[in-house]
Amino acid sequence: MAGIYIHIPFCKKKCHYCNFYSTPSVKHRDKMVPALLEELNLQKNYLDETIDSIYFGGGTPSLLSGDEINRILDRIQHNFAVSPQPEITLEANPDDINLAKVKELRSTTINRVSLGVQSFFTADLLYLNRLHAASQSEYAIKSLQDSGYSNMSIDLIYGIPTLDMASWKENLLKTIQLDIPHLSAYALTVEPNTNLQVLIQKRKLADVSDNHSAQQFRYLMQFMRDNNFEHYEVSNFCLPTFQSKHNASYWSGIPYLGIGPSAHSYDTKSRQWNCSNLAEYVEKIDSHKVPFTKELLSPVNIYNEYIMTALRTNKGINFAELARLFSENQRSDFNNILSKYQDSPLLTISADSVSLTDEGFLFADRISSEFFLSD
Ligand code: SF4
């Protein structure tokens, strides 16, 4: 099993919190799809495994036309072994979804749509500098559902200073009422070098509070469980059978190929990432070279990544798998740290595995870093 990620690096407007690579400039727009197709040729031997999931992310993939999506998918089919029914996801912004766009998407084999709703309230969308209006999200969801898309996910953000508890409850209730089977919910984080960081420093926007975020995260976990959603990864919740194959592959050590500027790839032994510059990307691909930087993963890197990704899931770390994958010394270090957590409310330790409790999910990064080894 393997996945392919396609990065579409255009956004009409930059959201304040965003640190993904994207540009509002359309200067190289017409060269973008031919460059992606060429990279799919240049990288056709990167993966040995069958492709089980394809993910159009960004940026804003919903800016692609149906024809462009089909050309990319045809090239993948031509160059790779693709399973008979791969999950094919497209991230979309609500302002791009109208009846014509839905019809275009239905002319492709996209079978899952992930919609960047973030909040159903105007004050939050303004704080985040999102382009869409609150009313456009509901319209987009209903239009996609009416056309036959039942496999849908939405993104929500909690911890926004403008989002009080009543509004957060309303956002979650609406998710259920709108029959959304998959939710990705992220804490608002002030990333370095974002507009959000600058605006908070200049006191033009209210700062983010850890307590506010934690309170909303605790409510989120309980509410989704009460509504029969599985909390299968720190930020991801789904109804039975709606787990995202593509997202799950990132947490399960499954190889993937990333295509497009800034896209990351992983083949179990190394990671590589393409340059985050569209002009440079297009130029290099034009001369039949993929502009990437590569890092070989040391045994310690592989161990630390396993700990970090496995602990983010509800399955946690399986002891038999740990024994199969890692050395006796590594396991002994692991057990030493684990013994400090024997009576901790942050971890559930059974005979077979260890996983985070609800309270532990709040500290997922800190807890996994305590298990990390150094070279
Ligand atoms: S739409 Fe997504 S990728 Fe584009 S600026 Fe906003 S958060 Fe970033």
Please describe what this structure looks like.
Helix content is 41%, strand content 21%. It contains 15 helices and 15 strands. The strands form three sheets. It has a nine-stranded mixed β-sheet, with helices on both faces. A three-stranded antiparallel β-sheet has the order 10-11-12, with no helix packed on it. Strands 13-15-14 form a three-stranded antiparallel β-sheet. Strand 2, helix 2 and strand 3 form a beta-alpha-beta unit. The radius of gyration is 21 Å and the shape is globular. The structure holds iron/sulfur cluster (SF4). The site of iron/sulfur cluster has 11 residues, from loops.
Topology:
Layout: E1 2-8, H1 29-42, E2 51-58, H2 66-79, E3 82-92, H3 99-106, E4 112-118, H4 122-128, H5 134-146, E5 152-158, H6 165-177, E6 182-187, H7 195-201, H8 210-226, E7 230-233, E8 236-238, H9 245-251, E9 256-259, E10 264-266, E11 270-274, H10 278-286, E12 292-296, H11 299-311, E13 317-318, H12 319-325, H13 328-339, E14 347-349, E15 353-356, H14 358-361, H15 364-371
Parallel strand pairs: 1-2, 1-9, 2-3, 3-4, 4-5, 5-6
Antiparallel strand pairs: 6-8, 7-8, 10-11, 11-12, 13-15, 14-15
Helix pairs in contact: 1-2, 1-10, 6-8, 11-15
The structure holds iron/sulfur cluster (SF4).
The site of iron/sulfur cluster (SF4) has 11 residues, from loops.
